[in-house]
């Protein structure tokens, strides 16, 4: 299996830690392990089967190569002997129930990126009196869904500059793409809904967004990686908190600034998630081109219909 698609991440896609804990509780097994839990054991066993490990002793040499924590072979063997077979039988039934047409379609996660953002073009207030922005300026805003592979916008919504980005970003969503968005679109309720609707996303979250019950994901160590942390967690405060756990990847940009992105992509490495967000720069290049070539002040008409018509045909 390719290193960019660790088998551990495939297991996480099929069985969440919460689902494993639920099965363990239903069987009546008391999981005493703090670090080496039943969920961790499941990851070890599935990797052992996929990699055809020869024995428990092979764990010491091969576990870390699969993104698993280093563990003594005796710990592995004792845990495997202690967990009732009924636990794994029930887990198999859960996986088998998921392997229907809908799940197979779900696991075919799209690879094309849809970059969603907006740009504001301002002029003097007298030029566009119907689109007053602030002060003595007027402006219009373009909300764009941009296909990164084709280098073309797929959908554009034109509004006055005061219109908020978030709600319009939802109208640009497309389940055939992985949506890549900046902080303006990072709303907790939206993360939960996208996850439920299988709309894949990589969205930057604000620096002050609260992270609760973080759990680190196991990953392969990549030399000179800009990723500093890879976790699953719930987002928000007690007053407004996500219902689902989301993956959050921490990484640094070229200037050493920390960036945090939320995503529901579990089959990709943290480095790939960081690279996906970096690809968002493509829409900024497009916006630069728009402002250089479509200047409001040079348009023949300044009515709402004339301005929007000009920007809807770039």
Search tags:
alpha+beta; Transposase Inhibitor Protein From Tn5, Chain A, domain 1; disordered N terminus
Radius of gyration: 24 Å
Major sheet summary line: 10 strands, mixed
Mean pLDDT: 82
Give the helix level as a range of percent: 25-40%
Number of helices: 12
Query: Which class of secondary structure composition applies to the elements?
Result: alpha+beta
Q: In total, how many domains does the architecture comprise? A: 2
Please trace the helix and strand order, writing H or E for each element: HHHHHHHEEEEHEHEEEEEHHH
State the total count of DSSP E strands.
10
Principal-axes geometry comes out as elongated
CATH-level-2 architecture of the largest domain? Alpha-Beta Complex
Uncertain parts: 1-7
What does it look like?
The chain has 314 residues and is α+β, with helices and mostly antiparallel strands. The protein folds into 2 domains: 7-107, no CATH class; 113-292, Alpha-Beta Complex (Transposase Inhibitor Protein From Tn5, Chain A, domain 1). Helices cover 37% and strands 23% of the residues. It is built from 12 helices and 10 strands. It has helices at residues 7-14, 17-27, 38-51, 58-62, 73-82, 85-98, 101-107, 165-171, 188-196, 270-278, 281-293, 304-311, and strands spanning 113-124, 132-134, 137-147, 152-160, 178-181, 201-204, 211-216, 227-235, 246-252, 258-263. Strands 1, 2, 3, 4, 5, 6, 7, 8, 9 and 10 form a 10-stranded mixed sheet that branches. Strand 5 (178-181), helix 9 and strand 6 form a beta-alpha-beta unit. Helix 2 (17-27) crosses helix 6. It is elongated. The two termini are 43 Å apart.
């Amino acid at each position: 299996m390719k290193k960019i698609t660790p088998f551990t991440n495939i297991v996480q896609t099929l069985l969440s830690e919460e689902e494993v804990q639920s099965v363990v509780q239903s069987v009546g097994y008391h999981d005493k392990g703090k670090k080496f839990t039943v969920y961790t054991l499941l990851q070890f066993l599935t990797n052992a089967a996929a990699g055809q490990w020869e024995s428990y002793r092979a764990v010491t040499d091969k576990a870390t190569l699969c993104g698993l924590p280093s563990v003594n072979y005796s710990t592995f063997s004792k845990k495997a002997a202690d967990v009732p077979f009924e636990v794994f039988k029930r887990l198999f039934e859960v996986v088998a129930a998921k392997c229907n047409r809908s799940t197979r379609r779900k696991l075919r996660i799209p690879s094309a990126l849809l970059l969603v953002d907006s740009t504001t073009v301002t002029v003097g207030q007298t030029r566009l009196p119907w689109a007053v922005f602030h002060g003595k300026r007027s402006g219009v805003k373009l909300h764009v869904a941009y296909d990164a592979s084709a280098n073309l916008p797929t959908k554009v919504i034109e509004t006055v500059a005061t219109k908020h980005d978030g709600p319009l970003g939802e109208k640009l969503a497309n389940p055939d793409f992985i949506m890549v968005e900046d902080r303006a679109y990072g709303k907790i309720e939206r993360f939960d809904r996208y996850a439920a609707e299988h709309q894949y996303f990589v969205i930057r979250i604000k620096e002050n967004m609260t992270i609760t019950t973080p759990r680190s994901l196991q990953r392969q160590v990549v030399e000179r990686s800009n990723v500093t942390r890879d976790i699953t967690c719930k987002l928000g405060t007690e007053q407004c908190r996500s219902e689902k756990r989301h993956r959050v990847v921490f990484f640094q940009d070229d200037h050493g600034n920390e960036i945090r992105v939320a995503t529901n992509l579990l089959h990709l490495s943290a480095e790939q998630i960081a690279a996906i967000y970096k690809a968002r720069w493509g829409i900024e290049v497009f916006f630069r081109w728009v402002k250089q070539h479509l200047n409001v002040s040079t348009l023949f008409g300044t009515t709402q219909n004339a301005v929007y018509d000009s920007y809807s045909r770039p």
